Amino acid sequence: MALLEVKDLEVCFGLRSGAVKALREINFSLERGERLGIVGESGAGKSVLGFSILNLISRPGYISKGAVNFEGQNLADLKPHQLREIRGNRISMIFQDPMMTLNPVLTIGQQMVECLLAHRKMRESDARKIALQKLQQVQIPSPETRLDQYPHELSGGMRQRIVIAIGLLLDPDVIIADEPTTALDVTIQAEIMDLMLNLCEQNNVALILITHDLGVVSEVTQNMMVMYAGRVIERGPTKEIINDPQHPYTQGLMNALPQMAQAGQKLNQIKGAMPPLQRIPTGCAFNPRCEYVMEICRHNLPDSTVSGNCRVACHMVAEMKREQAMGDEV
Amino acid sequence: MTDTNNSLVQIRDLYKRFSISGDFLDQIKFRGGKLVREQEHVHAINGVSLDVIQGEALCVVGESGCGKSTVARTVMGLLKPSAGEVSYRGERIDNLDDKALLPYRKKMQMIFQNPYASLNPRMTIMETLREPVQFHNPSLSAVELRDKIHEVMHSVGVDPSWGERYPHEFSGGQRQRISIARALAVDPEFIVADEPISALDVSIQAQVLNLMMDAQESRNLTYLFITHDLAVVEHFGTRVAVMYLGTLCELASTKNLFAEPRHPYTRALLSAIPRLEDDRPDFIRLQGEVPTPVNLPSGCVFHGRCPHANERCKQEIPALIPLADGSQVACHGVEEGRI
Known about the structure:
The structure holds 2 protein chains of 2 kinds.
Chain A: E1 4-15, E2 18-30, E3 35-39, H1 46-53, E4 61-70, E5 73-74, H2 80-86, E6 91-94, H3 98-101, H4 108-119, H5 124-137, H6 143-147, H7 156-168, E7 174-178, H8 186-203, E8 206-211, H9 214-220, E9 223-228, E10 231-237, H10 238-243, H11 248-255, E11 304-307, E12 310-313, H12 315-329
Parallel strand pairs in A: 3-8, 3-9, 6-7, 7-8
Antiparallel strand pairs in A: 1-2, 1-4, 4-5, 9-10, 10-12, 11-12
Helix pairs in contact in A: 4-5, 5-7, 7-8
Chain B: E1 7-19, H1 24-27, E2 28-31, E3 34-37, E4 41-53, E5 57-61, H2 68-75, E6 83-88, E7 91-92, H3 98-107, E8 108-111, H4 125-136, H5 142-155, H6 172-184, E9 190-194, H7 202-219, E10 222-227, H8 230-236, E11 239-244, E12 247-253, H9 254-259, H10 264-271, H11 311-315, E13 321-322, E14 328-329, H12 332-336
Parallel strand pairs in B: 5-10, 5-11, 8-9, 9-10
Antiparallel strand pairs in B: 1-4, 1-6, 2-3, 6-7, 11-12, 12-14, 13-14
Helix pairs in contact in B: 4-5, 6-7
């Protein structure tokens, strides 16, 4: 049994103009110790997916269909106090902006001890020892003094290390990291990603890494999903998708990277922009921007087709697979 | 130094300090029975000299707080330098008053990072674009004005019929196109772009970068491009200036810099870019963090984090030395041949 299994998840936001589907038909599973990357542009639904795994979607958003099973148990069926046992304890979350996650009026030590005491019966002095140990794990210089400092006294990279230390505090099985390094500089980003990679490997923690940076995903994760307008359009081993993307959107995204073009030449751009969720076109959501668009793409939503180790939601890929299969028979 | 004849903008020994001690009364302290005035400063730029050559795209890179945006704003005259000179086509412009600066404002335009903040939410796109054109060309008739604006809108791929709409009706990429249109509307020669694509998605970044490259070609523009994204620099820049803590570490052509980075900081910066390929060498881990620009380190500002630092680096501030291939590096180690 997979550690975490998301089945046919659908999340809606009830707006005055009617319900808008922010996520549709999300299916994936996560094994113990696996590292999964979720990639997409802003508005694709990657953060909503992160939140809905922990059932943190608040009104007007709601999970309208599907299940999130953690060790076989549907999180949507749990009572609030049962859910609290899992949040932070078994599945913890790291957010983009460390200044928003840390409480500015409590010292680092107070925040870490509070978190420990909320989940475990222990003495405060013991909790402080664990906190210190976790700060050492994330390689913070002079951890004893940090415990008594406030968030504003620390730099951005240092704050994000502390947020990671808090995420690891209760030895979770899964960490969901929502753009953990987007607010940081490249050299700090490299250090933090390196640190997270090592910690996950050492403690056999599964990681869901939400990011828009294909470079980061390719360095850290084993598997990845690409999202577009609330759907997963491509899913599979990271190496295969990076080296040989099959969905036209993934191809476009890779080709748009400046690394992919000759210096001084024009970049290969994808025309247009992602539609807002209220105005998703019929058929494949990517069809107005797709250079291989066919008639069927304008009417029918593509199912995900198995192609090698990947699953791709694209009519063109499905067609190619069908032709291949026919060719094999002949 | 580079050949000064074809340089459009010259920056010489630029310093910029910001006081962080509040107003006069806040600065008065009682020390040892005496009233003294104490002031603390953030040293944002410390002796930067740069030439922007006609027709090039000079990229300034560095991490947050290294002073790259301050350089951009000082060049534009939005900030007065604490010391040093900025010249445009050989004429000194940093000491001019607002009125004398007007003709230069028309030739130098700026594109800002956040298109959500840099467009006035209460003006339609037409009004936003009309204002600078009308201001700098008061003799234009209404028809000429409209034609001019429509032409600019066309050139950035914004439909002129959208002119009556307000900024909130546009997406981030479209807003950045409008910001670019506003900069292009007065036919500038020189554009300072401060992180123009950082707030945009990857597929939109490509569109905006292409647009800026097209404009450079068709209008013969010169860019000073401020960014932290090295992948963009490699693609877009003619030359690259790497800044660290308010000083220039390395200035080189894009090809040389990426093929053979000399300064230890540039090497660390390049090694930290996340790559798609598997064969990335391990990144060079720097010790510690960027020191505060309030109390600058002595000697080379990078010595506390540099793996090659020695006694000389702690004492003596390195100057930019020209190398054989035209690059310039401020590092004692490179000068002595240690690195």
